[in-house]
Amino acid sequence: NAGVTQTPKFQVLKTGQSMTLQCAQDMNHEYMSWYRQDPGMGLRLIHYSVGAGITDQGEVPNGYNVSRSTTEDFPLRLLSAAPSQTSVYFCASSLTGQPIEKLFFGSGTQLSVL
Amino acid sequence: AQSVAQPEDQVNVAEGNPLTVKCTYSVSGNPYLFWYVQYPNRGLQFLLKYITGDNLVKGSYGFEAEFNKSQTSFHLKKPSALVSDSALYFCAVRGYINTGTASKLTFGTGTRLQVTL
Predict the structure, then answer these.
(1) pLDDT tens, A41-94?
(2) Less CB within 10 Å around the terminal CB: N or C of chain B?
């Protein structure tokens, strides 16, 4: 029972590089989301999706893109990495987002941008 | 907009003693409240939720939380702490995004619980 799987676990980028953080869930959840976790700031919502083909912005979307071509996958793209994007990124899913009853989290991706 | 405050960065307690991790919230309408726990190098795990009903909610690993509407609080409690309870605890409140068609959880900044022998 895999749940929510995130890859990679660690990544180091140089400023300006691009990369994609992968997220997959095998629970047939409609709702998927990306959060970033920074010290003293808790978790902040970046983007979310309520189903395949539907995405929308959260609290801190600038510098990130997402797509949802399938129910299972919700990749997060950094087009031009900046040091301010150094953070721990979590993907989370829920059976539905209308409303959320319980979020299931992946184990996170620790990203450093130099 | 909804918000959550966790006033303590860290709580220290001896094993076997009761523990309390504090949380206060602000939200329009009825509050829907959650506690999550994060162990080192892991994602957050759901502990418990309050939607409606009894003010004392029981959750995983012997944890419970007390909802107090007049004080807008949702404190996490456990009668007897274990060293293995040491982790980062997050309180969250449910609200709505943008046009209100999808909900989101707004998290507090987290409280580190340290349980010692």
Answers:
(1) 889 999 999 999 999 999 899 999 999 999 999 999 999 999 999 999 999 999
(2) C
Q: Which of B102, B115, B108 is nearest to B73 (CA)?
A: B108
The C-alpha of B68 sits at a distance from chain A's nearest C-alpha, in angstroms, of: 20
Contact (CB<8Å) B43/A105: yes
Token pair 């509407």: residue: B69
**CA–CA separation, B19 vs B82, rounded Å?**
10
- Identify the pLDDT of residue B60: 92
Q: Do A97 and B90 touch (CB under 8 A)?
A: no
β-pairing, B102-107 vs B111-116, is unpaired
- Mean pLDDT for all residues in chain A: 93
| Residue A42 near residue B107, CB atoms below 8 Å | yes
Query: What average pLDDT does the segment B55-64 reach?
Result: 94
